[in-house]
Amino acid sequence: MSGLTLYNYDLDENCYKVRVALSMFGLDYKTVVVNAFPGKEHLTPRFLAMNPAGSLPILEDGDLTLFGSEAILAHLAASRDEARTWLPAGGADFARVMQWLTFSAGELSVAVAARAHALLDAPGDEAALRAGARKALRVMDDHMTARGFAGADWFATGGPTLADIALFPAFALSRDFGVDHDEYPALRRWARRFRTLPGFLTMPGIPDYH
């Protein structure tokens, strides 16, 4: 199978999702470092030709070029995980994983924007971004509280899936934009479990204590 190339900026949490998946799947890949900040290299013609949206990460898999972290996660699971444990092949479990991938790319994206505003001076209203992030994290914490009462440890199925990989960074990095983890006890417990998974990687800003 053709080799994988990840266009990566280390402090980008969407890039981090993909790095975690690649590590947990045990996949070898080449990294191309992109000077996203302060250089804004991802907005140059070279990178806009690969991703007109002007965002990272970008993954090359042979002749296939993908952008959008959730799409990349789904591709890696579908093409590299023969057991289909990370993205079930169909049925209710597939739908549940996709539900949370959609949430990650949609409602939870405000947390990514809040962190970018706090750390990289990206545009936005600080109070509104933080409030939106808190709302999304509350949805997640309420869900995992209910899952805990049902004896379940993970977001979508009986084991870790792409849903957990996609959702972890926004919570783990929330202190970067002023949201403390103590507000979300069910997510703290879930994050502790996630950190023990084989192949887990950390990044700057993710605390060890969870």
UniProtKB/TrEMBL annotation:
The molecular function terms of the Gene Ontology recorded here are: transferase activity
Provide the transmembrane region boundaries.
none
Instruction: Give the UniProt keywords, A-Z.
Output: Transferase
Indicate the segments forming the GST C-terminal domain, all copies.
90-210
Q: Which Gene3D superfamilies does the record associate with it?
A: 1.20.1050.10, Glutaredoxin
Residue ranges of domain GST N-terminal in the record? 2-84
Coiled-coil stretches: none
InterPro entries attached here? Glutathione-S-Trfase_C-like, Glutathione-S-Trfase_C_sf, Glutathione_S-Trfase, Glutathione_S-Trfase_N, GST_C, Thioredoxin-like_sf
Q: Name one Pfam family in it.
A: GST_C
Look up the domain of life of the source.
Bacteria
Family stated for the protein in its record:
Belongs to the GST superfamily.
Quote the protein name from its UniProt record. Glutathione S-transferase
Native source species? Mesorhizobium australicum
Q: What is the lineage of its organism?
A: Bacteria, Pseudomonadati, Pseudomonadota, Alphaproteobacteria, Hyphomicrobiales
